[in-house]
Amino acid sequence: MSEDAITDFAATRSPQQVGQLLRFWRRRRNLSQLALALEVGVSTRHLSFIETARSKPSADMLLALTERLDVPLRERNQILVAAGYAPAFTQRTLQSPDMQAVQAALSRLLDAHHPYPGFALDRQWNVVQANRAGMALAELLPPFLREPSLNVYRASLHPEGLARVTVNFPDWARHLLHNLRTAVEGSHDTGLQQLEAEVLSYPNVQAVLASRGESKSTGMHALLVPCVLDLPMGRLSLFTTLTTFGTPQDITLQELCIELFYPADAETEALLRPQAIT
To answer: Rounded to an integer, what distance in angstroms lies between the CA atom of residue 63 and that of residue 77?
Structure first.
């Protein structure tokens, strides 16, 4: 976190709000004061005093509480700064010298996944890196959905994006909307909230939400929700996996995830496999 960001945040927070923030995250995780106090090893009275600003918690106490509440690292820093402490977690860019090993690992993982699409995504599901197959998929989008950044939810749900060639759009849209809602609830990120409001305004998404149709899936489609795309090269049926970094201590690392697409049927495998030599 930059010094300017710390200053800006501190100017809008107070010790009273530290308690409010902790109470917000406790309630979001559906924990009572008693349950949280027992797990962290403090009295309920002490926790109550912290939440009502009658007691100032130490930095270690804030770290213990926010870790148990699974507060994202970005918000843990904000709570620490609001309480008058230094942020505990760094936020480096992928271009930072300290992140060279991470950058190399991402490149190896994505390149090895070719000829299947693969993307590295940030907290708001903007693409920060893609392999050749992923970039080829992005080329199907109009320029305004690729610039200034490519966002997976916007690209997949916008009527002029991949939605226009998604055969099972109702099923895929419901899957994406559920994931987006989960991300919003888990992070309380304003950017994700704005993104959710935007995609919910799309007429094709509103039509899906207004319908009560149920998926009639069989085989692989009964196990996973695929993304079925009707493309010039043929019909592709793909399912995805998400990978995150273990035990991150940097905000950028915690917020990164890798989405890898795999063939959901033999026909898709046959269409994509020849692309491995390109």
So the answer is: 9
pLDDT, tens digit (0-9, with 9 covering 90-100), for 99-139: 999 999 999 999 999 999 999 999 999 999 999 999 999 99
Q: Which two tokens stand for residue 142?
A: 């109009």
CATH 1.10.260.40 range(s) for the chain read 3-82
Please name the amino acid found at residue 20.
Q
pTM above 0.85, yes or no: no
Fold of 3-82: 434 Repressor (Amino-terminal Domain) (1.10.260)
Q: Is 153 helix (H, G, I), strand (E, B) or coil?
A: helix
Q: What is the CA radius of gyration of the chain?
A: 22
The length of the chain, given as a count of residues: 278
pLDDT digits 0-9 by tens, 251-273: 999 999 999 999 999 999 999 98
Q: Hey, what are 102's tokens?
A: 């991470």
Domain 97-277 has CATH 3.30.450.180: yes
Q: How far apart are CA 76 and CA 12, in angstroms?
A: 16
| Burial tier of 224 (Cβ tally within 10 Å: 0-12, 13-18, 19+) | middle
